[in-house]
Amino acid sequence: MEKLVITAAIVGAEVTRAEQPNLSLSAAEIAEDAYQCYKAGAAMIHLHVRDAAGNATQDKEVFTAAVKLIRAKCPVLVQVSTGGAVGMSAEERIQSIEADPDMATLSTGTCNFGTEVFENTQEMMELFAKKMTAKNIKPELECFDVGMIDNGVRLAKKGFIKTPLHFDFVLGVPGAAPGTPEVLMFMKSHIPADATWTVAGVGRSETPLVTMGIILGGHVRVGFEDNVFYGKGDLAKSNAQLVERVVRLAKELGREVATPEEARKILGLYK
Ligand code: KMH
Ligand code: ZN
After folding, report:
1. Strand positions, DSSP E, the chain
2. pLDDT, position 16
3. pTM of the prediction?
4. Strands 49-50 and 56-57
5. Contact 201 CB / ligand 1 (< 6 Å)
6. Which atom of ligand 1 sits closest to the CA of residue 225?
């Protein structure tokens, strides 16, 4: 089995300080958070950024400042979000790839997202794919439901993105696929044989799905974007605490953890 790539989704677009008092908002806080996750064993940071008021933004300058500060502290890989927040335009969302990331997300389908709709039309997916390919950035295909896998495969068949593909199954978003073992097993079996995959479980599905990801040879994502708790009713102290748990689980289950440089090869990043 390949070594385990741990991604830390440290900020997200929706979480607030009221829900998680230790949430990082400024570029300096985000960089320190990323560094602590790197020290704990994360090979990659899935990055969202916030504006001065603490709201999600896809502003390229804000992304660039955060990416630079993270890179000044440690060699962790940086994957920028192009998902942004619900309601943002495609043009707004794709700005983040101007920050020279190692990787970027590409959500391959529209779904309900709680009480809202996270829109990713065919036109948007093709636009994002073309722009990432032009910049030599490998996309992580964010799949919140099963049909999104097929949309990702179709993008490759049409020549918008290169194979082998890398998927992230984000399970447990209310309105999309639930975070259950059965769903993960199906999604894992539904991707091309040469593809790699990561799993992220929202809320209480985080730790069970991470454990399955370790056992099944996938890769895993944890962090405040997906889950602010350590246990039931017990807020996590930090993103690093969530990463530390993954490292312990991996050790107990006999899976080695990848460094950022190893992760770059395992995921087949382009640069
Ligand atoms: N904030 C969600 C609506 C991504 O980062 O690519 C979308 C999201 C996906 O977080
Ligand atoms: Zn995200």
Report:
1. 6-9, 44-47, 49-50, 56-57, 77-80, 103-107, 111-113, 116-118, 138-143, 166-171, 196-201, 219-222, 229-231, 234-235
2. 98
3. 0.99
4. antiparallel
5. no
6. 10
